[in-house]
């Protein structure tokens, strides 16, 4: 996930008018002919001796001419005058914001911003924008605790939660992973309740939070949702790889994993295509093996490099066995029906599915399940479910897959196939990114 960086402070200040010097009213020091006491200066005004130093038109011209030293000198002279009023301090700090922004002096700008915000002189709309700008400055400066303080104040004073993503990221980047995780999970739950897609950046951040803390469950939850809402090859491969790494995972589902991977990604690695073909041959599915190898050669990842000869030999073997299987597949139905259990019918049915004869294949798988005597009846149900999926029978696939149980990888695969069936139109690929 990329660091969620906010715009440069100079742009932010310009956007809310902080780079312009304020309009000032010099105090009237009128006296009557009898040398009466000086009239009280207007509440929001500055004394002539200060006004002379920081007259707005002059300060603006100096800033535009980049004569920052002169502006600093004038502000220093004004600061040295005694008994400044709150408004005079407010005016000087407004000008320090402009000078600090122009000179990239973060310390000057943030100190002046805090003083202006706490002065009580800002209009409500200005107060909101100044607080947001200060929080942004601290965030960009990687002073995350201060950023959190000001972003929280923004939320408290405005009731607006638009700074929430930055607050969560500030917790993450300050290594407060526990708080980041808690808040991200709240947002994920809220999105799910509202039946809306969680934000891509939040799911990426949740995945990184799990990775940073070696929290496999949190990481997998995030990746599952990335696959569900923003599927791409990297997310699918990562999810399936980590699922196989679970302590409870059974290796008998290795071929099932490859079947889903081949359906879900645009291109597998050379090793995955070759391994899928080997497993398919061992399972008595040479047509499937041939299809995997053909896909690998078409993708340009097989038939080259140090294993080129091995790939070609494997392909020749798969081609021979697939041709024989396709020639004799019809004669296998009678013997499969004579078997004591439905395993043969299920395997034969899936062979038809790989050939694109989905209806015939699904019917044979159903017949095999009904025949019974299976070592793992739930495995057969899983394969029936994704046969429906490959046939484009979405409702039947979901209904069947939802009934599949198992903690050894079978339940995960059933859930992942449902995610594939429900994938966004067009695949909606999103870039896989790492946290900075």
Automatic annotation (TrEMBL):
InterPro entries: TPR-like_helical_dom_sf, TPR_rpt. Pfam families: TPR_6. It comes from the Bacteria. The keyword Signal applies. The keyword Signal applies. Gene3D superfamilies: Tetratricopeptide repeat domain. Keywords: Signal. Residues 1-30 form the signal peptide. This is Tetratricopeptide repeat protein. It comes from Pseudoduganella chitinolytica.
